[in-house]
Amino acid sequence: MVEIIDCETHYFTEPYLEVLRGRTTPPRQEVHDGIRRCFPEPSAPEVAFSYPAVLEERLLDLSDARIETLDEEGISAQVVSLTVPGTEFFEPKLGVTQARDCNDMLGAAVSRHPERLIGLATLPAFDGEASAAELERCVTELGFRGANIHSHVGDMNLDDRRLWPIFEAAQRLGVPINIHPTLPHGSMLGPYLGYGWTLAGRGLGFGHEVAVQVSRMIFGGVFDAYPDLQLMLGHCGEGLPFWMYRLDFPYIKPYIDVLGEHPKLDRKPSEYLTDNCWYNCSGNFFTPALLACIHAVGADRVLFGSDYPYESYPEARQFLETAPLSAPDRRKFASENAKRLFGLGS
C-alpha cells in the first residue's frame, strides 16, 4: 500500500479538560459516568454534544501508544490539532494562556516523534495580534506546520478585520490554516434546533457553517489581500465544491448584478476555491462526494483525513484503498499532496 498521511486528527490535554470542567458557561464540559457532555458555543449555552469516555481517552493520548496505533493501522504520520471546543472561545486572557499551554504539550509530543506527528497551532483568536504571535512561535520554535481555527470566533465571522493578522502571519510563514467546523452561532441556530446535535452538528450545521464562513472570506477580500494564503477544509470541502458555479453567478452572468452590488474581487469565487483551498475527506467516506470534489478542484488538491479518534481507521483505510482512482491519483490523495501542503521533506 502507498504511504499514508492522515491530515485530520485531534487531541485534548488533561489541564485543558480541567479548565473546561471547572467552568459554568461555555465552553465547558460535564462528566456523567461514562459519558462526556460538551457545551462549546457561548451564544447557545444549552446546546451540547455527548460522546463516550473511551473516545476522550484516545484524544488525551499523545504518548507512544498513539504511535503504536499508527503502526498498527499503516499510517505514516498524523496532522494533529486541538479538538472542539477550541481556545478561541475563551475570554481573551484565558484564551492566550490555554493556547500556549496546549501548544507546548503538543509540541513536546511532536519533538518526540517528529516524523510521525505534524502539529497545528491552536490560537486565541479573539486577539488577532496575539494569535499571529502565537502562530509564529509555534512554527519557528515548536516546528508546527500550520494552524487550526474554528469556523467562527465569538460574534466575529472569519472575514472580520480583527482576524487578518492571523492570515498575514500564515502567508508570511508559508503555512496553511485548517478551518474546523463548530456549532453555528446562536443567531443562526433557530432552524437547526429540536433534533439535538443531529442537525445542528455533523448533519448539516457543521458543513453550512464552514461553507458560509469561507465564502465570507472570499467575498470579504481576504484572499485578495493575502493571495498565497492556503486553507484546508474537511469533509470533502463542506459542500463548497458543489456550490462553485452558483457562487460565481454574479461574476459570470452580468444580468444577475445589474446594480453592481456584488463585491469586487480579483478573481471569480471558484478560483479562490481551486487556488487557495485544499480538501480532506475526514468523516465523509462517501465516494460521490470525493469524486465531485476531485472533478471540481482537481486531484492535486485532495487529501486523506480520518478525523481520528472520532472515526475508525479501518473504515477510513478501506475508503482510501477502494476509491475509484488511478494509481497516481491515489498516491496524491494518500500522501503526496499533504507533503506539498505542509512542506514535508523540505
Write structural notes for this entry.
The chain is an alpha/beta fold and 346 residues long. It has one domain: TIM Barrel (Alpha-Beta Barrel), CATH 3.20.20. The chain is 44% helix and 14% strand. The protein has 14 helices and twelve strands. It has helices at residues 14-21, 53-60, 64-73, 92-112, 128-140, 164-173, 197-203, 205-219, 222-225, 240-252, 269-275, 287-297, 313-322, 327-342; strands at 5-11, 28-32, 35-39, 49-52, 77-82, 117-119, 121-122, 147-150, 177-180, 231-233, 277-280, 302-303. The strands form three sheets. The protein has a six-stranded parallel beta sheet with strand order 7-8-9-10-11-12. A three-stranded parallel beta sheet has the order 1-5-6. A hairpin with a 2-residue loop joins strand 2 and strand 3. Helix 5 (128-140) runs parallel beside helix 6. The longest helix is centred in the N-terminal third of the chain and has 21 residues, at 92-112. The protein is globular. The relative contact order is 0.13. The mean pLDDT is 94.
Low-pLDDT windows of residues: none
Strand coverage percent:
5-15%
User: Measured on Cα atoms, how large is the radius of gyration?
Assistant: 19 Å
Largest sheet: 6 strands, parallel
- Total number of strands: 12
